[in-house]
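COMPLEX REQUEST
Ligand: glutamic acid
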Amino acid sequence: MPLYPRSKHWLLVPLMLGLLFGFGCAAKQTVSVDSVKARGKLLAGVKYDSPPFGYLDTSGQLHGYDIELLRDIGKRVLGSEQAVDFQQVFSSTRVIALNSGSLDVVAATMTITPERAKVVDFSDPYFVAHQAVMVPEGSPIQTLQDLNGKTILFVLGTTSEATIKKRLPQARYTGFKTSTDAFSALKAKRGDALTTDDAILYGFMGQHCGFRLLKETLSEEPYGLAFRQIKGQAPPNSLKNAVNRALADMKNDGTLTRLSTKWISPEQAKKSCKP
Ligand code: GLU
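STATUS: Structure written out below.
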């Protein structure tokens, strides 16, 4: 007696397993506003190391643009800004954390790119940064070309890493898990320059005097909130659609402009920095 009958019916087995596990998982991936409300908390991945978007102050409190953005979304979508539960993510692991199911959303200085859009769903853009390069004030480096043969510090898993390595293949590179670590290395003269988004670099310049940005920027970096990918069209009650409606309202009522003005200011950075 053969292990499987020679009837074509057993060919249906993979289909049944697919229905049970594969399609079942896809359905589970759809995070709806109702499921978040039922849980009572929106699980949000944010940076703890990237001023002015997400950072801890000296007493361990979390602040920043992405934090305030999510609290406002919590108010608009879930009825309370207390409904957001923040968890730390890193550039190199934020997609894995999201897709593992432990987060509903990531709001972590994350650029919308076609590559990333293959593995996560993005909201509409809420902020546009630019990749820039920071050097110590007294550095002789003035242009990107001056960086050939020099050591450039970057954050692992970022668009900045990919773009600068393509642009300056002759430079030397050192990667860090967080932008705070990369900035500490620049302060300690373990590299000649640090590259990441200009808005993040302004955050560091607001904390420490003695640094400047090169005039040239490398790219436009539109930030989006990321969600687990939904196959096909997102249902109207999906978290992503609700967040997009909230972002549109925040754009129209001036909230997004207010957040940018409050958190991102190169002029303010110069005034508030400490030597
Ligand atoms: N916005 C860039 C990116 O998404 C760099 C900063 C970051 O990773 O947070 O890769």
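REMARKS: The chain has ten helices and 14 strands. Residues 91, 108-111, 155, 158-160, 196-197, 221 surround glutamic acid (CB under 6 Å).
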